[in-house]
Structure formats: structure tokens, C-alpha cells
């Protein structure tokens, strides 16, 4: 018995010290799943790039339900991982709950917001409205029917933030343009309902939209598919989705979640925490995608106009109003 | 709302109601035979996945359909084995099937296609073509009736017509054939059926098998008709709405058609108009999403007619000695 106890104790000690020495980063994806061709996949791509460039290793896990968030955070922290990077706004509160219990672990959250940031937490935000503004301009320049659409996933402030920037961009090009905005639902199931995405896209096409911007995770797959089937243009989100239906996807609003994850993993133990980090156009945190799949769809004039606006936003001459500023949008009603 | 918009909403209703209708009729067979089935959702999901996977690999939507039906029937067999042969709790078996399907589909899809639990997008022969009914083009010029025929009735995939044809067929089977009489009897008074020398177990397995086939068609329609591929959890609760429709329809085939069309219409309207303004009173979209469930509760509570489930429903049959 005593031998057994000693043996077990030794193993436990070994496991603990091994965990502390490694301090590998860990990455937690949100409910959309690792390969959603969008937000979470961008995080995965950033982690893969870091692993390839540095030869380091990391652990990752996908959430299956809301209840797992805190559990996953605690398990990674107790296993000695640092920084623990989480993708998705919904992790902000669980991190706030556990951060104090693991002062030696650094937590990073992408998209989240907390009134007070704990000392060992870094919150990374993107200026999605700026990137959405640019693709909104492209949509308005492409539209021949003077109607463009927006399809969001779950109806949350973040997605309204996307829609608001998009509508401002479209109206900057053409003040008379109609922007139709729909949300898929009010529960997390709205991120994974391509059938509803298709029906929403068909409804918007019925109302005259000929460019539709989908910021809806897996639901967006249905939107992009329908746009390709019906012969109109669509705009992807987060990752570069131009390749999904070449010739139909006008562009993608890039949110460089991969860069954020890459930077956080590279920072390792020296990562500055206890603060917000905001990535906008100036930091290349957001942007629009042009590659061989959509080069023919976007003319030089369009690029010139968008680049001009981009320069003005960076220099501060042009301000895109954020939905967060006063929970309303000057260009769009919800 | 102009006429064209109305047609578009109704068109959307037909598409959204089809998977509900198939699943609802599937549940109808099973529950009329006395086997409650809350695993409709799981069966649809498994069928959606396997039909998309096989359709992608073989390029044939028909092989996909058969694979989807096979997956769904396999889950039905598990449900039958657990709840008929071994007399387990039917609800628990159904819940288990839902979890099994949700997990297995993503796991196998990830292992098979390495796209994170999705199947690649289907192209060409891997999807159901929309069928244009004869004379749809010529008749579309006729006022009112022309567009209704060309837009609403024509231009759906084959499975939509199958689903709608299943309604009279189900009615005929259940109420005009010997098999149907026995099937209903086994859900009301299995001991009487047994006394007459007919196998209760055999009849219940037949009902659960038909349920599997119909769920398989519903899942295939989602993945290869409405969509071009499988996405995890893509049934998004439609199996449960179908169950609600079944109760709303009081376990009758024609009522089921009405209930599914109503629930489909509610969804279509919710998708088309986010907030409905009724002379100053704004109805938020959430109300429309919740209405199917609210209506079901109202029906269950007995305010509008009474919904009486099959008497022997949920009870495993034990032969008296």
C-alpha cells in the first residue's frame, strides 16, 4: 500500500512539474467549431502558423455546449498551459470568473468585453465596423439593383456592429441605396442553420438584393451557396471565403483572428496583459480580401475608392460610427 | 404585401414545411403504433450526413438518398431493439439516439473529409434538381393562377412532391388497409391485437421502420435538396418542431399537413419580416419563432379541442401469462 501511495505521489509530482515546465499555449474554439471556414478556423490557422514557424506545440479544444467553457479554462490552467487563448465573446465572463484562481496563467480572449480587465487577462478586439465599411462600399459599387443585403447569425451587439459598418459603407457610396438586414435567430443555433440562411438569402433576393454580406458562421455557408445558385454576389466574413464559390463571392471581410492568435502565442510568457488590444485597419486587423478567385469581380476603380476610404479612416479624416458607441446605428435600423 | 411577395413567402413555406412534414409523418407511424419517438431529430441528422457524404463521393444523389435512409433505418432499429424487444424506456432511447447522431455525424465527417465535421459542397448530380412541371413556362402568363402554378407548385425538388404525396398515402394506409387498422390497434390496445394472433412486436417494428425511411428522406432533403452538403447540427431542432406539429395535428395525417404548413408559414414570415408592425403594435421576430411551441402547449392544455395520444403509447407491451 505504501509503495503504491509513494508511486502515485511521484507520478503526480512528475505530472505537475512537467506541466509547469512546458507552459505551452492552449486554444479554445467557440461553438461554431474548429473548421467553420470562418472565425474559429482563422484562429486555428494562426495557431498552425505559429506551430510551423516556431516548432512549438499547442493544445486545442472545441466547445460543445455553453456549460463547458469554465471547465475547459480551468483544465487548461491546471494543466499548466499559458497563455490560454479563447476565441469568441462568450468566454469573457467565464475568464473573469476563473482568472483570479490562476494568477500564473495568462488568459487571452478574442472579441470579448469586460468592464474591468483582470491583471492576467488580455482582451483583443477588432474594429469590424471599419472592415465592414469597406466591403459595404464594394457591395454598393457592385449592386445594380440599388439594394444590398446583410444576413447576421445570432442577434448580438457584435453582429449589429458588423451590419452597422456595412450599411454606412454602402450609404457612403450611394446615399439612396436600400440595405436589408436580417438576423438568423436569437440562440446559438443561429450560427449553424444553413437552411435558414438559404431562406433568408432567397427572401432578400426576392426584395431585390443583388449583393449579400453574410456574417453568420456556418449559416453563412447556406447564404453563399444560395447566392451562387441564384447568380448574385455574396460577401464572406472572418476568413477568406472567396474560394468557396469563385465568381460569386465578391470579397470577404477579413478579420485577422489568425494574426491575433499568432501574436498571443508568440508573446508567450512576456505577453502584456491586464488590458485591451484593439486591431483595426491601421494594424491590419481587419480588411477585405482580393485574390485570384475574385480579381475579375473587383475593378481598379473599386479598389481605388476603397483604398482612399481606408487611408482616410486610418488618418482619422473619416470616422465610421461604432454600434457600441450608443447602441444604435445612424445608417440602419434594427 | 403584394402578390409576388405573397408567392415568395408561400414558396418558402413549402420548402420549410417539407422536412417538417416528412418527420411529422414518420413520427405519426411510430406513435400510432405505440412507440414514442423523440429521436426524429437524430435520425434526420444522421440521414442528412450520410446522404451528403455518399452523394459527394459517388456523385449520385439517388445513392445518397438510399444511404441516408439506411442510416436513419439503422437508428430506428436501435430504437426498436431498445424499446420494443428489450422494453426499455422509449423516451430515453430517443434522447440517446439524438445524442448519438449529433456526435457520430461530426466525428465520422471529420475523419472522412477532414473539414471539421462538414461534408464538401455538393455539385452537379450530387444535388436534387428543381423540377419544372409541364407547361409552367407557357402558363406563367395567365393572371393569378399562372404564377401560382409556375412559382409555387412547380420548381421544387422531387422530394417535396414525395412528401406531399405521402399525406394521402399515409391516410390510405392507416385508415383503409388491414395493415393500417392493425397498426392503429397496436397503439391503442396491443393485448387485443395479440389475442387476435397478430404479432405486436412485428407490427411495431414495421412502424418504426417506416418512421426510419421517412426520417431518412427528410434528412436527405435537408442536405442534398435544400442545401449542398452537411453542416453539423444542421437540423437545428426541426425534429422537435415536427413532434410539436404531430401533437398539434392530433396524430392525424391531413391535420399533420396543415400543422406543418402552418409552422412552415410562421417560419417563412419570421424570416421575411423581422418585426411585424400591426398598426402600432410591433411583434418581434422571437414571438414568431416561439409560436409553434406556444400553439402546441395551447393544444395540449385542451383549450382548442383535445389532443389524445394513442392509449398504449410509451408503454412496452408485455404479454400476460
Automatic annotation (TrEMBL), chain A:
<comment type="similarity">
    <text>Belongs to the BMP lipoprotein family.</text>
</comment>
<keyword id="KW-0449">Lipoprotein</keyword>
<dbReference type="InterPro" id="IPR003760">
    <property type="entry name" value="PnrA-like"/>
</dbReference>
<dbReference type="Pfam" id="PF02608">
    <property type="entry name" value="Bmp"/>
</dbReference>
<dbReference type="InterPro" id="IPR028082">
    <property type="entry name" value="Peripla_BP_I"/>
</dbReference>
<dbReference type="GO" id="GO:0005886">
    <property type="term" value="C:plasma membrane"/>
</dbReference>
<keyword id="KW-1003">Cell membrane</keyword>
<protein>
    <submittedName>
        <fullName>Nucleoside-binding protein</fullName>
    </submittedName>
</protein>
<dbReference type="InterPro" id="IPR050957">
    <property type="entry name" value="BMP_lipoprotein"/>
</dbReference>
<feature type="signal peptide">
    <location>
        <begin position="1"/>
        <end position="23"/>
    </location>
</feature>
<keyword id="KW-0472">Membrane</keyword>
<feature type="domain" description="ABC transporter substrate-binding protein PnrA-like">
    <location>
        <begin position="35"/>
        <end position="318"/>
    </location>
</feature>
<keyword id="KW-0732">Signal</keyword>
From TrEMBL, chain B:
<dbReference type="InterPro" id="IPR001851">
    <property type="entry name" value="ABC_transp_permease"/>
</dbReference>
<dbReference type="Pfam" id="PF02653">
    <property type="entry name" value="BPD_transp_2"/>
</dbReference>
<dbReference type="GO" id="GO:0005886">
    <property type="term" value="C:plasma membrane"/>
</dbReference>
<protein>
    <submittedName>
        <fullName>Nucleoside ABC transporter membrane protein</fullName>
    </submittedName>
</protein>
<keyword id="KW-1133">Transmembrane helix</keyword>
<dbReference type="GO" id="GO:0022857">
    <property type="term" value="F:transmembrane transporter activity"/>
</dbReference>
<feature type="transmembrane region" description="Helical">
    <location>
        <begin position="91"/>
        <end position="113"/>
    </location>
</feature>
<feature type="transmembrane region" description="Helical">
    <location>
        <begin position="254"/>
        <end position="270"/>
    </location>
</feature>
<keyword id="KW-0812">Transmembrane</keyword>
<feature type="transmembrane region" description="Helical">
    <location>
        <begin position="65"/>
        <end position="84"/>
    </location>
</feature>
<keyword id="KW-1003">Cell membrane</keyword>
<keyword id="KW-0472">Membrane</keyword>
<feature type="transmembrane region" description="Helical">
    <location>
        <begin position="158"/>
        <end position="175"/>
    </location>
</feature>
<feature type="transmembrane region" description="Helical">
    <location>
        <begin position="196"/>
        <end position="223"/>
    </location>
</feature>
